[in-house]
Structure formats: structure tokens, C-alpha cells
Design goal:
Layout: E1 6-11, H1 25-43, H2 48-52, E2 57-58, E3 61-68, E4 77-87, E5 91-99, E6 108-117, E7 119-120, H3 131-139
Length: 149
């Protein structure tokens, strides 16, 4: 089984839930973004403060799909396992599997696939990844073994 490039845990709080105590689906997107942001900072060494500040850059999400499997409830600990599927000239394809136990193989809650692009201030459209960041991204590409489906 492929190993994730990054694992992050989020506890479902009251602010994430609807009146029934179930996660309101847009709150998952906030947790996904927080996972990506934390990975850039702690996993790659390129925090969003550095990207948006001195580097005058950003990595907006241009595509996002979600497969919801089970609801999550107030107090649940969710495990976000991030996989790097592809690094392009200026884009990055990620998959994030969200499970409902402190174990990454726990109950599947949702799977998110997203594409980010690298942009720079003053450049219309996307821009190529800086070489140092690109090298770090490529080192995190998930290699699927023959037992994965």
C-alpha cells in the first residue's frame, strides 16, 4: 500500500457542524485547505506566509472533486492522508483520503482530489514551479505498488 506524503489530524469542532452535529460539507474544504497549507509549511518548508510574502506567489486550487462516503460528527478525530499523484510544469495533483479514526486505515469518510497551480504576482496565468520547490514536490510523488487498486 502506498504511503502518504503527509498525514494531518483534525478534530471535528462545533463550528464544523450543522444543528444535527454532522459536519457541514463546506467545512471539509476548510480542513482540506488547512491540511495542504500545513503540508507546504512542515512537509516542504514553503509556508504560505513565505509564498505570499517574499516569494510573491500563490498556489490556488483550480480543480476539486469529492467523493463523500460517510458523515462525520462532532468530536470525531479525522485523519487526512495526502498523496502526491503528479507534478506538472506549474500544476500539482493531490489526493487526500479522510478517515474517521486515529489510524489512517480507519473508516473512510471522503476522498478529495485536487489540482493546485503555481502563480506569481505580475504573471498572467500559471508559472513554472521554482526548481527548489519542484524538487521537493517530485520527491513526494506517491508510487503505487501492484497491490493498490
Amino acid at each position: 500500500m502506498a504511503q502518504p506524503a503527509f498525514i494531518c489530524r483534525h478534530k471535528v469542532g462545533f463550528a464544523h457542524c450543522d444543528p444535527a452535529g454532522i459536519v457541514f460539507y463546506p467545512r471539509y474544504f476548510e480542513m482540506v485547505n488547512a491540511t495542504v497549507e500545513e503540508w507546504f509549511e512542515t512537509g516542504l518548508g514553503f509556508g504560505f506566509a513565505q509564498l505570499h510574502g517574499p516569494m510573491q506567489a500563490a498556489v490556488p486550487t483550480v480543480s476539486l472533486t469529492v467523493d463523500f462516503k460517510q458523515p462525520s460528527r462532532l468530536g470525531d478525530i479525522l485523519v487526512f492522508s495526502l498523496f502526491v499523484e503528479r507534478v506538472g510544469r506549474s500544476s500539482l495533483d493531490l489526493r487526500i483520503d479522510v478517515n474517521g479514526r486515529a489510524d489512517p486505515a480507519g473508516q473512510s469518510r471522503l476522498t478529495v482530489t485536487l489540482t493546485l497551480v503555481f502563480t506569481q504576482k505580475g504573471v498572467t496565468g500559471s508559472a513554472p514551479w521554482p526548481e527548489d520547490l519542484r524538487a521537493k514536490l517530485e520527491s513526494k510523488i506517491t508510487i503505487q505498488d501492484h497491490h493498490d487498486t
